[in-house]
Write a structure and sequence with these properties.
- The structure is a homodimer.
- In chain A, α4 runs antiparallel to α5, α5 packs antiparallel against α9 and α7 crosses α8.
- In chain A, about 25% of the residues are buried.
- The first copy, chain A, has two domains: about 45 residues, Homeodomain-like (Arc Repressor Mutant, subunit A); about 160 residues, Tetracycline Repressor, domain 2, CATH 1.10.357.10.
- Helices cover about 70% and strands about 0% of the residues of chain A.
- Chain A is mostly helical and about 230 residues long.
- Chain A is built from ten helices and no strands.
- The longest helix of chain A has 26 residues.
- At the A-B interface, α8, α9 and α10 of A face α6, α8, α9 and α10 of B.
- Chain A binds a DNA duplex (18 and 18 nucleotides) through α1 and α3.
Chain lengths: ~230, ~230
DNA sequence: GTCTATAAAGGGATAGAC
DNA sequence: GTCTATCCCTTTATAGAC
């Protein structure tokens, strides 16, 4: 661990609030924890807490920024040591679960405004853009130089990001011990996915696969779910 | 239109509140509309409104019950007239969009607690079970007697329900005029889906397809995303 | 059973003083 | 930057009118 960087007073207070809030969220859940609880636990007034975090959800956002940074720091080096594509994908997904494993109660808040395009915390809005990009970089790295058709290569990071969102949704609802059902689903899902990738580039299957691939690409481009390749 | 069924006073008042609330939600959105607004607009006291709807979300739930009933009433007869599987699927999806087309602002409230297993309005909870089942019955009917492998046949309604949830999520975020991007995505998506179904049962492809199918079934059963077939 | 009126608990968010 | 006071809201509750 590097010498703890001297935190400005501002950052120290922020950190203090964040830590207190996460502790409470983990124990009581997101909704039952009030900003008054958080302020008290951090030894601050309610107003001061709002000075640092404009909304309760903003605290969860700050937590999630940290998750993303941690995920990058953990997954990228570990993937370098992984022996193949399948292994890299496993690392990408499982390290994410390792990081959030105790935080099901608080992650629900992240899913709250996904469907609401008018909300600043929408999944597709600018407030969450950096998080999306960071996450997608990890999947980018997981693919690495795996040999894939160009269009599949282009789609893959977003596909993996979407699968990873689904994984988190399943994880939130997974009451099995240690969320082992999620772990199993990830492993089985990735096996299938890798098989699909390899089929997508198998030379013998190209006559059947290629027109399907281009239909998919066209559909997603028109839906603006991926950026158009010709622009 | 059949002679308006005589509503009990209770039902008339409920209806009145619901109508007033929906009007406000459509104009102002879900969150900015207060129960006070709704009560005033319905010409009732705040207490009376709460007498009929315990929470603000309960109003949206009542709306969604109505959507489901309407969807059944609209889609089932229309599907009988449709000429084939693809057409029935198109009817199932597009009639849903027809019904909710002006209600993007209020449907966001339905997505709010989807990821939260502790919330009564969770997507997977008992409060929303009847809605899920009603929706799945429609997809059941859309499949009809289409010739499909037994395992695919079993999975298909849930697959379609999931796709339909994705459609709604896209729809909520679709700012194109008349949400025509959603319509196009549905059409293209269904074309691909039907192609996938037909490949799943094509005799020539069975050697390749069958092991994949059983892997998928096993995975979903273990994840309890479908009920086990052997029980 | 249906409703009004009213109060009050409790929480998110903000204004403005220090 | 930090605090107190305050606003407005959801929700619960109560007492009583019809």
């Amino acid at each position: 661990m590097p010498a703890a960087p001297k935190l400005s007073k501002r950052d120290a207070t922020r950190e203090n609030i964040l830590t207190s809030a996460l502790k409470l969220f983990r124990v009581k859940g997101f909704e039952p924890t009030t900003m008054r609880d958080i302020a008290k636990s951090a030894g601050l007034s309610l107003g001061a807490s709002y000075y640092y975090f404009k909304t309760k959800e903003a605290i969860v956002m700050a937590y999630y920024d940290r998750v993303q940074a941690e995920h990058t720091a953990l997954a990228i080096p570990a993937m370098r040591k992984a022996k193949d594509f399948r292994a890299r994908l496993g690392v990408a997904m499982h390290t994410k679960l390792d990081i959030i494993k105790d935080d099901r109660r608080l992650l629900v808040a992240m899913f709250r405004y996904g469907g609401d395009p008018d909300h600043p915390l929408s999944w597709f809005g600018p407030a969450t853009k950096k998080q999306r990009e960071l996450a997608m970089e990890i999947f980018e790295a997981a693919i690495g130089d795996e040999k894939l058709p160009k269009d599949v290569r282009m789609l893959a990071p977003r596909l993996l990001w979407t699968a990873h969102m689904g994984m988190i949704l399943y994880f939130l609802n997974d009451r099995s011990a240690g969320q082992k059902k999620t772990r199993a689903l990830v492993d089985g899902g990735l096996d299938l996915l890798v098989q699909a990738f390899s089929m997508s580039s198998a030379p013998l299957l190209q006559p059947m696969v290629k027109p399907i691939r281009s239909k998919i690409v066209k559909l997603l481009e028109e839906a603006e779910l991926v950026e158009s390749s010709k622009s």
